[in-house]
Amino acid sequence: MSEYVITAPLQSSLPVRGSNKTFPVRRVYCIGRNYAAHAIEMGHDPDREPPFFFQKNPDNLDTTGEFPYPVKSSDVHHEIELVVALKSGGTNISVENALEHVYGYATSLDMTRRDLQGEAKKAQRPWEIGKSFERSAPCGPLIPAEEIGHPDKGRVELKVNGEVRQEGDLDQMIWKVPEMIAYLSDYYELAAGDVIMSGTPSGVGAINKGDVMECSIEGVGDLTVTVI
User: What is the rounded CA–CA span in Å between residue 225 and residue 223?
Assistant: First the structure.
């Protein structure tokens, strides 16, 4: 057995509610503009066009409850999202069988350096500089689907310092969870450990140091994150 020439990076993982075991994360896929009202507020047509995805890095996921305000940005936005964690995968997965591959769900945030994302869009460049930075995906514990089923409706809400900023419902997703899994599997070989961040409702906005973000997805769980 060969040895690494440097110390191997730690395996990124998410806690599982009620368990001392953790869920190892392989990849993080994020769907864009998956709620019609959010697509409109970002200046896009909400019609049901083919979905598109970008990626965050596994080690962007953070469960500390703190979000360090990132460097090189003065316009950082919150985006509450449902996380879908896969226990198995494959290619060309059918919509009808897609949920068989889901391990569980969590409440999360897709934090975005909106100014840097905007510059990338104007230059027709990838979004990673605005999306895939350190600790840019605060996340709560996973709840196994065998405990809560597969939520397809339920209130989605984010408060900043007690004021409601984002609100919507899981049933407002343009592309539902089974459809996201099936679509991704046409382009990638999905596998156990893959995570999908499923888009955000309208009301995204800027945060500042000292703000407290309170997130909740009905039937899934709560997440509180302080900006430091």
Answer: 7
Q: How many CB atoms lie within 10 A of CB 164?
A: 11
Beta-bridge partner residues of 196: 29, 84
Of the candidates 82, 93, 88, 81, the residue with the CA atom closest to the CA atom of residue 103: 88
Whichever domain contains 140, its CATH number is 3.90.850.10
Q: How many domains does the chain have?
A: 1
| E strand intervals along 145-201 | 155-160, 163-169, 195-197
Q: What is the pLDDT of residues 144-168, one digit of tens each?
A: 999 999 999 999 999 999 999 999 9
In a domain, 37, yes or no: yes
Domain limits at 204?
Answer: 13-227
- Return the percentage of the chain with pLDDT > 70, whole number: 95
